[in-house]
Design a protein that fits this description.
The complex is a heterodimer of chains A (537) and B (238). By secondary structure, chain A is α/β, with parallel strands linked by helices. Chain A contains 23 helices and 14 strands. In chain A, 43% of the residues lie in helices and 14% in strands. A five-stranded mixed β-sheet of chain A has the order 2-1-3-4-5, with helices on one face. In chain A, helix 10 runs parallel beside helix 12. The C terminus of chain A is likely disordered. In chain B, 25% of the residues lie in helices and 16% in strands. In chain B, a hairpin with a 6-residue loop joins strand 8 and strand 9. The chains are: A alpha/beta (537), B alpha+beta (238). The interface between A and B is medium-sized, with 30 and 34 residues.
């Protein structure tokens, strides 16, 4: 395999495309609404209408607007059919043939939900067939890997990523280039690359969507990283709750290996890189990097104190580079288009774009990708279409580790620093919108219950502290708490935050602290009136 | 071998660079409370009782796994740390069913000592009253999960010193339980050599010799350190 072979595959793939292409979403969101039946019905309808010579039906990844699924997009004229039912497929095909308007609701891809987006990570999502490597190659795939291997020294690649200003998309926002440089500088007989795909925040599905829609992009990013830091083995740690993502990754790894894009002597260079899958068994804490590494090693998934950081001592004691799915998905475009291009997007300290999963009380549920620094209001009200029949009360970012941002702060630009200032975090990209009917004490209790259940049990503040916090919150919602309980709650939250061993415990009190900060009246009301409240987040 | 100089609670001390803050403090007569730490086994930083403040670092650091550094200014006894320690001990007492008056370890118990040293006379938190089992299927020893603080000493001592790895954890969060082999009664655990190291290691009355009655049991934790020193350095000193 060399560049010519790659271009040849791309050319062949593009030449074989038929004039009209019907792109059917086959990611988990649409599949859960019979997306596969729609795809089959469309294929049947094309065959029945004898149009196979100029119309083809392609299964693609997520198009983002999950609430309107199953989605079918017509290429090249851009019509977007929403909530397509299998029985409507014949009329959709007939409409292509001038047989009158289709009996299906037609949306527009020019609404703010789409027009305000800036797809980099998701640029292939909903366009290419995630189950065919040729489709990815036709979209320019694996050229960045070729460019890195054949035209750049490993240090150049690290330098390029550093200059781009890319920060880790898993939540903490650690500079990616710095992490790569640390692993690259370690001298060790072997090094590892790990992709963290153990996305576990309630309401977050960015990584799932990327893996289901464009798995090769992640593999290419990992391979470039491996070349840059000198690793030869990679692992993708995917949570077991993502069977489709696992299946597509398996297919992708197999295809890439067969084409010589993974394995030994990639692109006929001396570079070897092998990727294996590891499936999580349902523990949220395994998204924490040291717990994840232990889980890959086959041990109980519990975090350990850092330092040493995985970059110094990771899998089996060897230097290990661990990045999130979205971080790896950003690598190929940076290598192709250059660090300056990437650094030109976003804000001064947060470069590039961020994928968010919009969920909760919002009209347009789904995935969006916006430049860093986009105001929350633009995301929630313009793109998300606001709350159906109501007003936004708060936006919860960062899942159980984040906080609630009240509507008064909707004009905040979304970047790492601004969200931290408000007592929340960027997190991995979950964004849950709440309306006036949501009780904030109930929201805090919901997330605390989650953290209590997911605590690994190793350190005392997290194991026993989250259970006590949950107990006090239950007292509050049951109307049995006193003002003294609120003081105990506050001090306990501060202690758990400062004294816990890993990020799970250190951030678990955030939903409580942020609701105590912005909605003290709701806590007080529960105490005064003995009001009951239940989470509806 | 490089030596670092640092101050702990204002006292200037020197320590070898591979030493932890905890080791350096102990060598110099400065006491930092610990629970999961046990000489002779690896340090895991789980109980969070040894958290200390280091000037210039916003986070609290566990003294048992943090190496000394040149010019480090360590504070082990600030008001904040004292309060956190007390809270952690109170959480431990509220978490399981600790009844000192009916415990074999009464009077010799590390958890009890901790409560006294941090000045705890009651727990401000509600008791969780979990249902915990007592396993006396082993012919010589027993484990009472009501008294277990999940410090993991038995797990490490069994794995690292005896090499049997009979003990481990199952479940997570508050439901974590210490189990023998693949969750079989201790008496049926085929890997157990009945060496009794876990009995010596346990800081509370959770793992005990059968037949001991209230306050009767005293453990000798220095035996473990002795074995490890003997093996590693060929020195037979306690």
């Amino acid at each position: 395999m060399d560049l010519n072979d790659l271009l040849e595959i791309a050319e062949k793939e593009n030449a074989s495309a038929k004039p009209i292409r019907l792109r059917c979403c086959t990611a988990a969101g649409c599949l859960s609404q019979q997306g596969d039946a729609v795809k089959n019905a469309l294929q049947q309808a094309v065959a029945d209408a004898d149009m196979s010579d100029r119309v083809e039906v392609i299964g693609v990844g997520c198009m983002g607007l999950c609430s309107a699924g199953p989605l079918v997009k017509v290429d090249p004229d851009g019509a977007l059919f929403e909530q397509v039912q299998p029985q409507q497929c014949a009329s959709i095909i007939a409409s292509l043939n001038g047989g009158g308007p289709a009996e299906a609701s037609v949306g527009s891809d020019t609404i703010p939900f789409f027009s305000k987006q800036h797809p980099i990570v998701l640029e292939n999502s909903g366009r290419i067939n995630p189950e065919r490597i040729e489709s990815y190659i036709a979209a320019g795939g694996y050229q960045a890997l070729y460019h890195s291997l054949r035209e750049m020294a490993p240090t150049d690649v690290v330098e390029e990523i550093s200059k781009s200003g890319l920060r880790g998309r898993g939540g903490a926002g650690f500079p990616t280039g710095l992490k790569w440089a640390t692993v690259a500088k370690m001298t060790a007989e072997r090094k590892y690359i790990v992709c963290n795909a153990d996305e576990g925040d309630p309401g977050a599905f960015m990584d799932r969507s990327v893996l289901e829609s464009d798995p090769h992009r992640v593999l290419e990013g990992m391979a470039i990283a491996a070349y840059a830091v000198g690793a030869t083995q990679g692992f993708v740690y995917v949570r077991g709750e993502y069977p489709l993502a696992i299946a597509r990754l398996k297919t992708a790894i197999q295809q890439a290996r067969r084409m010589g894009l993974l394995g030994t002597q990639i692109f006929e260079s001396p570079f070897d890189f092998r990727v294996d899958l590891r499936i999580g068994a349902g523990a949220f804490v395994c998204g924490e990097e040291t717990a994840l590494l232990r889980s890959i090693e086959g041990q109980r998934g519990t975090p350990r104190p850092r330092p040493p950081f995985p970059a110094q001592s990771g899998l089996w004691g060897y230097p290990t580079l661990i990045n999130n799915v979205e971080t790896f998905a950003n690598i190929a475009p940076i290598v192709t288009k250059g660090s300056e291009w990437f650094a030109g997007i976003g804000t001064e300290k947060s470069k590039g774009t961020k994928v968010f999963a919009l969920a909760g009380k919002i009209t347009n549920t789904g995935l969006i990708e916006v430049p860093m620094g986009t105001p929350l209001r633009t995301i929630v009200e313009e793109m998300g279409g606001g709350v159906p029949n109501g007003k936004v009360k708060a936006v919860q970012t960062g899942g159980p580790s984040g906080g609630c941002i009240p509507a008064a702060h909707l004009d905040t630009p979304v970047d790492y620093e601004s969200l931290a200032k408000l007592g929340s975090i960027m997190g991995s990209g979950g964004m849950i919108v709440m309306d006036q009917s949501d009780n904030m004490v109930g929201v805090a209790k919901f997330f605390m219950e989650f953290c209590m259940d997911e605590s690994c049990g190793k350190c005392v503040p997290c194991r026993a502290g989250t259970a006590q916090i949950h107990k006090i919150l239950t007292k509050v919602t049951d109307g049995l708490a006193t003002s003294a309980d609120l003081d105990t709650l506050r001090s306990l939250c501060e202690m758990v935050k400062s004294a816990s061993l890993c990020g799970l415990g250190q951030s678990a009190p955030n939903p409580v602290l942020s609701t105590l900060r912005y909605y003290p009246d709701e806590y007080q009301a529960c105490i005064d009136g003995g009001a009951t409240a239940e989470a509806s987040a | 071998m490089a030596v670092k100089t640092l101050t702990i609670d204002g006292k200037a001390i020197s320590a070898r660079e591979e030493q932890t803050i905890l080791q350096a403090a102990r060598e110099n007569g400065i006491s930092i409370p610990t629970l999961c730490q046990l000489n002779g086994t690896s340090d895991i930083g789980a109980c969070r009782l040894c958290l200390v403040e280091v000037a210039g670092i916003p986070k609290l650091l566990p003294a048992c796994v943090t190496r000394v550094g040149e010019g480090m200014e360590v504070s082990t006894d600030s008001e904040r740390i004292r309060e956190y320690r007390k809270m952690i001990v109170e959480l431990l007492f509220a978490e399981r069913n600790h009844v000192c008056a009916a415990c074999v370890e009464n009077g010799h118990c590390e958890l009890q000592d901790l409560a006294i040293s941090v000045g705890m006379d009651h727990s401000r938190y509600d008791y969780m009253n979990p249902k915990c089992a007592v396993d006396i299927t082993h012919k010589r020893y027993g484990i009472d999960h009501n008294r277990c603080v999940l410090c993991g000493r038995c797990v490490r001592v069994c794995d690292e010193i005896e090499g049997a790895h009979t003990w481990d954890f199952q479940g997570r969060g508050a439901n974590t339980r210490t189990i023998s082999d693949m969750f079989v009664p201790w008496g049926q655990a085929a890997s157990c050599t009945s060496c009794g190291k876990c009995v010596q290691a346990c800081p509370t009355g959770a793992i005990f010799r059968r037949g001991s009655t209230v306050a009767e049991m005293q453990k000798d934790r220095t035996r473990l350190d002795f074995i490890v020193t003997a093996r590693e350095k060929k020195q037979w000193i306690a």
